[in-house]
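Form 7-S
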Amino acid sequence: MRKASMLKLSTWVLVGTLGVGIQADAALLVGFDAAAAGAGVTPASQGWSQFGTPMVNNGAFLLQDNTADDPATSSGEYLSPTVAAGTMALTSGQYGIEFRVRPLTDVPFLGGSHYANAYVFWSDDTFAYNITVDLDTDDGGAGTTGGIKYGQNSLSDAVLGIDWSVPHTIYIGYTGTAPFGSFDFYVDGVLTSTVAAGSLARTGSFARDAVDFGDGTTGQGLDVAAEWYSVSIYDSAAPIPEPASLALMGLGGLTALRRRRA
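Output:
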């Protein structure tokens, strides 16, 4: 697991021939990486709270798989240790939730439930937020294209057109001040959409200064499955550019510093 207290990275690149410097800083506050942890190691052994049955770490990802084809295991969720009070405050100006995931099943949203499918949930000093990774069109049909949704008893689209046949890294960065700001949604380092924080906000203090992920429909008789590669909190509203992202900016000849994984 990467050490939150010691990780502070800076990446400098030159844009074209203009010599314009872009600096991206992001300190890891708390996180779990399945590959770095190793096969058989779960977040529960690294200070995360476990609810329900444990997901299985195969050395690459945690497998979330509930009911139909796996009725006894991997149907729980994990809540991270808390970060320093005020780090995720609306007045702090910025923080980021990052996760790498691949949903495996298409499950209809359950009316009256706070969550649907596979979800990520977190809270700052005032509000709570939750998003779901969505495979296909929530109709139980075939297909791998989906997106990211947010909401409670009804859902809205934050991102559309994600090909979930492969995993993707999602970074949700908060910027602004109280009472609300906005969340920027990055897919594999590319800014894809911006959603007003107030439209995601709900009441409640669960996951205060922490992040929670897993199965939002445990016990509902649905087959909810996903691959979770990593889930983290950073103190930055923007991710460190990865080489693929820099190539999209016309910087294919330059090398970016990747986030190290201990």
